[in-house]
Amino acid sequence: FITILIAEDNVVSREMMAGILHTQGYKTLHANDGDEAIEIIQKQDVDLALVDINMAPTGGFEFVKYLLVNCIDVPVVVVT
Questions:
Q1: Taking the alpha carbons of 80, 74, 31, 6 in that order, is the dihedral positive or negative?
Q2: 28: number of Cβ within 10 Å
Q3: Is this structure's pTM higher than 0.90?
């Protein structure tokens, strides 16, 4: 399986993206904010991250910064 992390604070948007990806055979992991996304990336292998920039308390920029500082090589698609 290809695993895609969806970091999006809007439940409807997150579920819509997940539904589309599931129909194409992808596995998804869900995070409500950047902190949850960081927790997931620390525990699981992720092939791609779809990340909302505007999340509270920790947004997408902080998540991407975490990836860079920790040399975690995961492609990121920014959504907003």
A1: positive
A2: 21
A3: yes
Long-range contacts of 53-56 (CB under 8 A, 24+ apart): 53/78, 53/79, 53/80, 54/9, 54/80, 55/7, 55/8, 55/9, 56/9
For Cα atoms 79, 50, 73, give the angle at the middle one, nearest 5 degrees.
125
What single letter denotes the amino acid at residue 7? Answer: A
Paired tokens of 8: 């999006």
- Spans in the chain with pLDDT lower than 70: none
The token pair that represents 17 in the structure block = 């993206």
- Residue 59 in contact with residue 51, Cβ under 8 Å? no
